[in-house]
Amino acid sequence: MKKLFLFMLLCINLLSAQSIVLVQDEIDRRIFDQRIRPSELIDVPPPTQQLSLKIKSHLVNITVTDQVAVTEIDQIFYNPFPTQMEGHYLFPLPADANVNQFSMWMNGIEVHAEILESEKATQIYQSIVSRRRDPGLLELVGTQLLKVHVFPILPQADTRIKLSYTYTLQSDSNMMEVFYPINTSKFINLPVEQCSVLVKIKNQKGLATVYSPTHDMDIQKKSDHEAVASWEKANHTPLNHFKLYITESDKNVGIHGLMHRLPGEEGYFMMMLSPKQEDMREIPKDVVFVIDTSGSMAGAKMTQTRDALTYCVSKLKPQDRFNIVPFSTEARFFAESLQEANEANLSRAQIYIEKLLPRGGTNIDEALQLGLNMMKSDRLGIVLFLTDGLPTIGERNVDNILKNVKTANKASASIFAFGAGNEINTSLLDKLASENNGTQEYVAENEDIKVKIARFFDKLSSPVMTDVRVNFVGFHPTDVYPKKLSNLFKGSQLLITGRYASTGSQAIQLIGKIEGKEVVLTDELSFTEVEKTNDFIPRIWANRKVGYLMEEIRMHGVNNELKQEIIRLGKTFGIVTPYTSFLAVEESE
Fold it and tell me: Does the model's pTM come out above 0.70?
């Protein structure tokens, strides 16, 4: 007999960010209509008169231990309407999921569910509704849908709900998929005030790669057996369900791939590569922080920049060397040469950072040359360059600045450029990064510089392999992106997309330098003849190709051939680009 979870509550207000709430007559018609299975409900168009309740927060914590996933959901809801109603909360579950807990907070107290037989629980619920009391009823509908009966949903009131369930992940070729239904755009237009997903992973076999194709996750591998992936947004309307792929490996390099190929067509692949961490030793590095302290950095920007610098310096390892080059009208330095990252020098650097003040113009050319001239060719060199404006002092011509940087960068240091605010020469920063084996990132006016730089530097703090490239042995995929691979850092992984025609098992080599010596790590990957799943891969590939073409246009100017290819990709794969947009009109228009 079905089991039910029953609450006797004082006040209830319920809606789920990953589910929907419908009124009694509508829910009975939609769920129990023979033409609609419960698992399909999430794709049924909403009723035209449905009211939406406000979602204050939707927090998801997922713990994955080997193949067992425990999902905990914590949500707060608000009813902005002046009327009360009886509602039904729906939540789709994995087929073999077991509900561990369902509770609500009433008057600040957490009230847990009681398990009753189906018939008895239904009778109690109906009797309470008839007496205008406040129960919550959770029942299993079919095999993949939970339904909570709620009455009354009080006007202009909050309620908090917690739901926990456990299920087993299916492993296919050492790859597992974590799925969470977070998209509600078909039912609810109001944004979620606070939305986050945190996934903690432990695996006895060892972790090769962790990747989400749906969300921009911050992924940190703590060891070969543990990783943490996190994502959060404020005032956000979820548009995609959450997916995270975990691959297991006990090899010195983990190479895993996903394919999508329709009959008679070329296929698309997404390949994830990650060397085994315990076999990798961290490479000593030289880091120079070239930081804009011009007058336009006054206020919050300068405060955040000082905080970011303090954090980055604290993350340096004893084997590292560093220097700080603040610049405004002219460039200065913390020390005349690179300093050992020992306790005494780090303490002096912290004092130096606190005294940085914003004033003067922006002499980018002199600052970059000063920083690069400190680098030595026998070490891995990293320049972290931050500016919020255009060059206004000294050399101002972009081409000349790039030539001077090329001349000064004899040690082949990587330049990672950060642009803060709206008054930036993006062409200069793009080219500085692409021509010097780095990346560029932009911080909007309303974003925190410290958070963005700190998160970025966490990934750069432990390099393990340089001069990285991938070799496809006897196999020739096309349109492979990115064209140029970055250095590998501890806990990081490479994500490569492309197209393929040949099928079968193919040898793939990850080649790079570890402590100056070239290392070749080999594994095999099977390229399938037909694979109708993973239909998100072509769009990821197209996004990467558009990004590459846009960078070519930024570097070399608008080319009609490249522009037309971007338009074709945008229209074919539904990608918003500078040359394509979405337009919705009534059919009659």
Answer: no
